[in-house]
Design a protein that fits this description.
seven-stranded parallel β-sheet, disordered N terminus, mainly beta
Length: about 220
Amino acid sequence: MNFPRLSVSMAAMVLGLAIGACSDDADTSNGGSGGTPAGGSNANGGGGSQNTGGGGAAAQGGDATGGTGTGGAGTGGAMGGNAGTGGGGMGGSAAMPVPCPNQCECMPGDICEFDCTNDGCNQADCIGATCTADCPDGDCALDCDEMGNCTYGCSGGDCTFDCDANSTCNLSCEAGTCEITCDAGSTCNVDCTGADECVVVCEAGGQLANCVGNCTTEGC
């Protein structure tokens, strides 16, 4: 069979097309040359490895195909330690029991609890201290003096309270018939709930901050 003869120019054109086809097949195996900047020019995603992109932050970079260059999420190391456990609070000092069969006192800085049982506390003096007491048998005289801090009760009734010299007093007299003097810049809180009557007298700048129940006041 006789084949037609090709001219030199036509032969060169055919050869060029064949070379171009081979070149395209080779490029597709590497993810494509001239890809997007995100994908890079090779299968490793812009020069980085398959797991970590070159030149990017941790765990960012191209995917394995080198197509889109989608970055993976980075995982940062934990900087802070676990929260510390707070120290336990320290409890307050316990009150010192003070027997008071007749007369007694609590001195500055002390914390006292007067024992007024058995008809005691004919005179209990809290002098610049912190004091508590109850008078279960009644007829007690409970004083708070010289910036004392006192909490007194009279569950037996018929008591006298004297809150003096810039002291702070919380006083209760549920059985009634109590006489309360709030004197010389002191502050008194009085509870006479259920009592027949409590008489509160304020002198020399003493203040009655609050009185609950059946209170009769003078100078307050």
